Design the sequence.
């Protein structure tokens, strides 16, 4: 079964062709890295997968079901999870509120209108488990906007895991973080359940090469330039050209 | 999520309980010691408190700034007026039920149109829809008597369990509805539904990507706010014994908005505090000058420029300070 299958996806904004005829597929549990310089269309691609944007042409299948025009919340219910590159958390709510809302999203209590949210013990217990596991339990009662940047990035990842996705889209999870914080994020990603299919976007090649992903796809001006194993990508002349310019073909990409 | 009141330990909980008990006793005793004008004024405050609290479900919780809440106030008030004066219906509970149903139906239709937008567009669209209601009331003379208004709404007979003909009994009656509305709205705001609304206020795309069908939540909250707003309009019609197009006018919406902002939108009780402050200031100023809305305008500018979180914002700060001092000692 494919966690994700994309055929001939196109998207343009006015005169700008952001995504041009992209096809790719991802088996369940497979881990794919998407790299490419700024403006290559990486985040646009995620917005199409999530449903925040509608494609101009092409088809998207999730777990073998056509979701091209399915609303966002139904894709999430089908097992999709995603993080954002630019911080997108509920910043005036507490940390535990954020996690509980994430867990509750697919549960039967989500339309409850009378019992206080805190009285749903099973939700709070599950949030506690998740937060203890990833070291956020101590700051549970802090407002998200008072957390450090690194903690917020960490929470972003945890919240996306709250609904137990089987396909996880990570948009630059370490963007703007200090090296020690990057280590803790890569640790979380490495320790994720092996059944979760992951697509990870990065323009930082170190991160991608440090995560032993199954495959890497290189995107440039909205098109797939190359797909292959880490070794294949490292020695691919086209990729070198994109990242290093034509003059400097002898030195390898950052390794 | 965790109970904020209990978080500070027993002492804090007892403190709040004591304050609440004193307030309730005061409100119950008040009509016995106040002038008849005072009773009418405070009854009005209760009604506007319900109205402002219902608006805050949209404004403070879902982050939807509605400038059309008067539409619900107006249609419910007029439903009562038409049923009583033209239909000869004397049963209070049936009239109220009809008025709330009409408010819900209006929310059903207007919500469908307005919820598609957000921010300033939502504000303008709700404003336009409410002005539409106002215009219909103004020009449908055969039914509403236009700008003459509809007089003769009698608080007739026995309204189980008491007669509400006297102002004192009506005071207690409205106090009961205020308590009931506050209880229900409090539970809604602190339920999963209420937290989802707050999440939508913070970031709608985040909530969608978490898996929430956000449109449905906003729609339901719009209808709910409309029903509670309709309750306020119904009670006001019974209090005045007379309805006029002013009920549905933007002035009424603006008043509710001002109450929410003055009291603070991020504290549940904020809009009720705002209703007390604004309506009492109006009551006092209007006994000196006709131009009391000028004073309200100045308050509005002051709140927007210098006290963005309203009185409720200061209360939270005070609460934190006391709590910090207590835990230190």
Sequence:
């Amino acid at each position: 079964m494919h966690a994700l299958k994309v055929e001939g996806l196109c998207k343009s904004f006015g005169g700008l062709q952001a995504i041009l005829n992209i096809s790719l597929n991802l088996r369940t549990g497979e881990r794919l890295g998407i790299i490419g310089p700024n403006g290559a269309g990486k985040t646009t691609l995620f917005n199409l997968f999530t449903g925040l944007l509608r494609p101009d042409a092409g088809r998207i299948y999730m777990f073998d079901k056509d979701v091209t025009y399915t609303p966002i919340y139904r894709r999430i219910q089908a097992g999709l999870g995603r993080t954002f590159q630019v911080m997108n958390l509920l910043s005036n709510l507490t940390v535990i509120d954020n996690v509980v809302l994430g867990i509750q999203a697919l549960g039967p209590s989500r339309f409850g209108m009378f019992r206080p949210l805190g009285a749903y013990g099973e939700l709070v217990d599950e949030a506690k488990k998740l937060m203890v596991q990833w070291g956020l339990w101590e700051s549970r009662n802090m407002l998200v906007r008072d957390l450090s940047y690194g903690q917020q990035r960490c929470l972003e990842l945890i919240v996306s895991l709250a609904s137990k996705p089987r396909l996880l889209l990570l948009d630059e999870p370490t963007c703007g973080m200090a090296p020690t914080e990057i280590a803790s994020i890569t640790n979380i990603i490495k320790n994720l359940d092996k059944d979760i299919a992951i697509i990870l976007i990065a323009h930082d090649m170190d991160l991608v090469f440090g995560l032993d992903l199954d495959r890497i796809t290189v995107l440039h001006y909205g098109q797939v330039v190359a797909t292959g194993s880490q070794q294949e990508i490292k020695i691919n002349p086209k990729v070198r050209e994109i990242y290093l310019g034509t003059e400097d073909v002898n030195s390898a990409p950052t390794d | 999520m965790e109970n904020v009141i209990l978080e500070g330990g027993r002492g804090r909980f007892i403190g709040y309980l004591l304050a609440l008990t004193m307030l309730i006793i005061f409100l119950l005793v008040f009509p016995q010691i106040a002038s008849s004008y005072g009773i009418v004024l405070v009854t009005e405050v209760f009604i506007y408190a319900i109205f402002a609290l219902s608006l805050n479900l949209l404004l403070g919780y879902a982050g939807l700034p509605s400038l059309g809440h008067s539409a619900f106030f107006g249609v419910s008030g007029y439903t009562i007026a038409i049923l009583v004066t033209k239909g000869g219906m004397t049963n209070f509970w049936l009239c109220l039920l009809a008025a709330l149903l009409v408010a819900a139906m209006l929310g059903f239709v207007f919500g469908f149109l307005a919820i598609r937008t957000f921010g300033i567009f939502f504000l303008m669209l709700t404003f336009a829809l409410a002005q539409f209601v106002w215009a219909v009331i103004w020009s449908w003379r055969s039914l509403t008597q236009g700008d003459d208004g509809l007089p003769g709404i009698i608080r007739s007979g026995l309204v189980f369990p008491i007669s509400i003909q006297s102002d004192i009994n009506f005071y207690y009656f409205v106090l009961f509805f205020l308590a009931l509305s506050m209880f229900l709205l409090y539970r809604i705001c602190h339920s999963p539904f209420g937290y989802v609304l707050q999440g939508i206020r913070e970031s709608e795309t985040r909530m969608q990507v978490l898996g929430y069908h956000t449109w449905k939540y906003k729609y339901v909250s719009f209808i709910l706010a409309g029903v509670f707003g309709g309750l306020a309009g119904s009670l006001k019609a019974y209090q005045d014994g007379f309805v006029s197009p002013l009920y549905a006018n933007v002035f009424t919406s603006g008043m509710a908005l001002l109450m929410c902002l003055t009291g603070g939108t991020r504290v549940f009780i904020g809009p009720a505090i705002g209703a007390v402050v604004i309506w009492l200031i109006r009551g006092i100023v209007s006994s000196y000058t006709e131009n009391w809305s000028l004073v309200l305008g100045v308050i509005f500018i002051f709140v927007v420029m210098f006290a963005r979180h309203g009185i409720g914002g200061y209360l939270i700060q005070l609460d934190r300070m006391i709590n910090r001092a207590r835990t230190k000692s």
